[in-house]
């Protein structure tokens, strides 16, 4: 089947976009509408590579398809530059929620680093408040259009900087006011979670949920540090946990695998993997296994019982949506509705919400997939 950016296809009589979905790994500064970037850039006198929204979208996708996380991250210089004012942050957050709702998402978590949005005089608190205002405006707009969506903030610290304890305190202070969890992001290789042990100790003392980018640009040692030093409840990407699996035999659909201790721990403890298929290709996270989606260890991890979830990472950079990511997996691995429903159940169970609210999500998903 042919899949465009919207990704909508019909599977077993159901429109993929209309199915209820949960999005756990979605960066605010990686999900701007190209038209919005152009308008916000014009307002502050910032030059952009292309003045046509479609051409700018193509520019992002081309620049991001580098095979390197470091090169991929350079595209964020443009998006963060237009997110330095209250108005810019609020608009981007509002449109973020509207776009999720249009994609069939019923619950999402948006991760972003407030410390990167202080260039025009905002304080950390003002930046978080501006994003929360946009989220609530987006939720209200979705409700008026007949959709129902809830979005929580994952307050993120940059792992190459030294403000993680301060950002952790900021996240906890916004508990109950929009913040549902904490993350560290940025260049992973050379900046392990152990560098931020003080922040993670503080979060643990305050029982505040943590997800950590690990197993994308760095391997098993990074994942180990995320779990031990970061007390991570989820792994951001985590795809390179497959390096701790040794395929012994492979005959048809039967695969015999030897688990390393780390992989077995992640699988047996059902630690969710926030996998992002298109992004993992672009950044070279799956280079060990190949260069196409069919080479992605997603299916191996799924078949072995890991708690896999499907995510977009950065919609602008990957020119994608959650609907499209699911459609690409269907194309690569011939998944059916039962498989896609399992991925949503996994994501709902992994959401940083009280158990009662996670159970409600599961019920909505089950009802929506009953077609």
TrEMBL record:
EC numbers: 3.5.4.4
Keyword list, A-Z: Hydrolase, Metal-binding, Nucleotide metabolism, Zinc
BP-aspect Gene Ontology terms: adenosine catabolic process; hypoxanthine salvage; inosine biosynthetic process; nucleotide metabolic process
Enzyme class: hydrolase
Domain Adenosine deaminase, first and last residues per copy: 20-366
Highest taxon above the source species: Bacteria
Annotated Gene Ontology cellular component terms: cytosol
GO MF terms held by the record: adenosine deaminase activity; metal ion binding
Cofactor names: Zn(2+)
Record keyword Metal-binding present: yes
Family: Belongs to the metallo-dependent hydrolases superfamily. Adenosine and AMP deaminases family.
This protein's name: adenosine deaminase
Species whose genome carries this gene: Microbacterium hydrocarbonoxydans
Gene from which the chain derives: add2
């Amino acid at each position: 089947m042919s899949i465009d950016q919207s990704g909508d296809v019909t599977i077993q009589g159901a429109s993929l976009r209309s199915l209820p979905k949960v999005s756990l790994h979605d960066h605010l500064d990686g999900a701007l509408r190209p038209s919005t970037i152009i308008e916000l850039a014009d307002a502050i006198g910032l030059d952009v590579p292309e003045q046509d929204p479609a051409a700018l979208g193509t520019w992002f996708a081309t620049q991001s398809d580098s095979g390197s996380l470091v090169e991929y991250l350079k595209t964020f210089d443009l998006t963060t530059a237009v997110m330095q004012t209250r108005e810019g942050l609020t608009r981007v957050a509002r449109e973020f929620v509207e776009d999720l709702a249009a994609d069939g998402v019923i619950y999402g978590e948006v991760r972003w680093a407030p410390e990167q949005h202080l260039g025009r005089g905002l304080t950390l608190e003002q930046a978080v408040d501006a994003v929360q205002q946009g989220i609530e405006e987006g939720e209200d707009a979705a409700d008026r259009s007949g959709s129902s969506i809830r979005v929580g903030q994952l307050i993120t610290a940059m792992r190459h900087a030294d403000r993680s304890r301060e950002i952790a305190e900021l996240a906890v202070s916004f508990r109950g006011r929009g913040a549902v969890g904490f993350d560290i992001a940025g260049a992973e290789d050379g900046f392990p979670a152990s560098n931020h042990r003080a922040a993670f100790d503080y979060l643990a003392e305050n029982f505040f949920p943590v997800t950590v980018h690990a197993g994308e640009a760095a391997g098993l040692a990074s994942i180990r540090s995320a779990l031990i030093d970061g007390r991570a409840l989820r792994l951001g990407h985590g795809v390179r946990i497959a390096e701790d699996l040794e395929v012994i035999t492979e005959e048809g659909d039967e695969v015999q695998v030897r688990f390393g201790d780390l992989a077995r721990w992640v699988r047996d403890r059902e630690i969710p993997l926030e996998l992002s298929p298109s992004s993992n290709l672009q950044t070279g996270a799956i280079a060990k296994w190949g260069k196409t989606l069919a080479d992605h260890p997603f299916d191996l991890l799924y078949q072995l019982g890991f708690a896999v979830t499907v995510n977009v990472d950065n919609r602008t950079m990957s020119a994608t949506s959650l609907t499209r990511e699911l459609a690409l997996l269907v194309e690569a691995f011939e998944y059916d509705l039962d498989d896609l429903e399992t991925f949503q159940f996994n994501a709902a169970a992994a959401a940083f919400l009280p158990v009662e609210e996670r159970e409600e999500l599961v019920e909505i998903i089950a009802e929506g997939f009953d077609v």
